[in-house]
Each structure stands twice: as C-alpha cells, then as structure tokens.
Amino acid sequence: MIASPLRLRLDRDALVANWRTLAAMSGTAACGAAVKANGYGLGAPQVVRHLAEAGCRDFFVATWREALALADAGVAVSVLHGVREDDMAVALESPHARPVLNSVQQVRRWRDAGGGACDVMVDTGMNRLGIRPEDVAAGLLAGMQVETLMSHLACADDESPLNAQQRDSLAVLRDRTQARRMSLANSAGIALGPDYAFDLTRPGVALYGAVPVPALAGRIRQVVTPEAEILQRRLVPAGAGVGYNLTWTATVDTEVAIVNLGYADGYLRRFSGKGRAMLDDRVLSVIGRVSMDLTAIDVRAAPELAEGDWLAMDYDLSATAALTGLSQYELLTGLGARYDRIWV
C-alpha cells in the first residue's frame, strides 16, 4: 500500500493521560469515552483499544454503523441516536451495543420488540434529543431494563444557571426508574464539580486534546499533530505572488515550500495567512490562500528543507481555535481520510 503524503501523528500516552485526568476529576463516578465521528477523527477502533487498555469500560457512538465498526473491540457501546425502525434488526441482535432511547416512539418501539438492556436520554433543557422528565415521572420506563439514565448539558462551557437547573432536573429522577446509573457530565461538565458527575461521566473532546473550559487548561495534553510532505521548494522573486488570486506578494526573494495539505483535508481556508508549521523551535508561516490540496509555507528560516521532507503543522487546539475562529470540535472532526494515522 502506498504511503500518503499526509499523516496525523497521534500521541497514545497523551490520550490515555487525558482520560486518566478526567477520570480522576470524576471522583467516584466511572469515566467513559465518547468515540463518535470515528473517535473525533483519530480512528475509533484504535482510540477504543488504547482507552480500554487503560481501564475505560463505557464507550459512546452516534449511530449503529459506528457501533458495528467496533463489533470486534470487546467493549460495551451505547448508541446515542437510539433506534430508528431501520436499526431494529441490528440493534436487537447486537451482543455488544445498546441503544440510548431518545423519544416516546423509540421507547415503545424497543419495548414492543422485546428489546433488552438500553440507556435512556432525558431532555432537561437542551431541547435536542430526549424524553421529557414528566414522561419518566409518569412511568414510561416502568419494567424496562435501563442501564443508564442520562441527560446532556447545553451550556457546560459557560457560567449559566441552566447547568444547575439541568443537574437538579436529572437528580429528582433517581428513584423514578430502575436505572442502574445516572449520567450528565461531558468534558466541560466534569469541570463543573462533583455534583455533576452522578455515576458515569462521558468526556469527548477533551480526551483528544481540546480545552473547552479554563479549568482544564494545563491539565490536557495535545494528542493530534498533522504533518505534510513537501512536494516542491521554490524561490519566489520579490514582487511575485503565491496561490489563488495572489493574495500574498513577496517583498523580498522568498524560499517557499509547497506541502500536500489543503481544505479537503480539514486544513481550511481560515488558515490562509494565519497557520504555522513548526520545525524545532522555528516558526514557519503559511502564506497565500490555502487551496483544496496545497498550502504554501515561507521556509526562509529553514534552508535545510527540501522536497520529500516533512513539516509538522502547529495544531494546539485551543490556540488554533482562537487563531482561526473555528471550534476545537471542527478542528478535530474535520481531519480528512487522506491522512495516514500513526500512533506513537
């Protein structure tokens, strides 16, 4: 198989350290892991393997197709989007995955089909997915084998009064079902304190190096570094421009490296004139407009670089989000399929 001119360098130790940090912050609650969107772009099977070896026992995906991709991982998987009619045959036969039921219709569909263990999402104020607390109080889940009764925080990354309201709305349901566990906190929710942990936390983005709230700054390690191969090094004479519409013009003769990286790979046009590559302690600037497959970098400070060499892109998630205006979620999940994903 031919090697790609793009790769993601993925730090296994950082991933595991981030999970252990979040697990410690979860107190007595178990700490799971959201691995939807292909492990936030890193590769779900590999992420699951590394975290399972570290002690994680609860994993969350969005769809049944994502669950099937983990069928051989030997772990328990919860499917956050529940069960559509089209999912029922797979869901009823799955030995490793269970649905997170999200609506009255899904609850009835699962019960009428004789479904076994399930999780249930309760909407405590986000108005996205979930049954109403009143439905639980009225006995909708009576007699069902509910593993985890959960909800999702809408404003965990803000100092919002809704956080406490959602926490309290879930807490009052503790004795209204036979659910074995309750769960509310995501990555940012874990940082809100022990009252939000309940029995199980469900971190996602912070596992992969994002810092969604200041309380996690300095405690979360970078996991992902995109690297691109230099396709050509060229001299751009003073007065000449680079890239589409020549948005950058050389003021002096400038050595430029063209790398195999562009917005088709998730390195979006927002990086034009803002992105950076790193070489030892040297910072190399992205110049001109990022295109679909190519990006230009000023390499005057790196005379040793040549065709076939590799450059690591600066991809600290919180700093890069501030630089580009993209969210840390987008920076992760937008990383494309053309990268070789290499765990180190």
Strand order of the largest sheet: 3-4-5-6-7-8-9
Approximate helicity band: 10-25%
Mean pLDDT: 97
So how many helices? 11
Unreliable sequence segments: none
Number of strands: 19
How much of the sequence lies in strands comes to: 15-25%
What does it look like?
The chain is of the alpha/beta class. Helices cover about 25% and strands about 25% of the residues. It has eleven helices and 19 strands. The strands form four sheets. The protein has a seven-stranded parallel beta sheet with strand order 3-4-5-6-7-8-9. It has a six-stranded antiparallel beta barrel with strand order 11-14-17-16-15-18. It has a two-stranded parallel ribbon with strand order 2-10. Helix 1 (about 10-25) packs across helix 3. About 45% of the residues are buried.
What does this entry show, briefly?
This protein has eleven helices and 19 strands. It is α/β, with parallel strands linked by helices and 344 residues long.
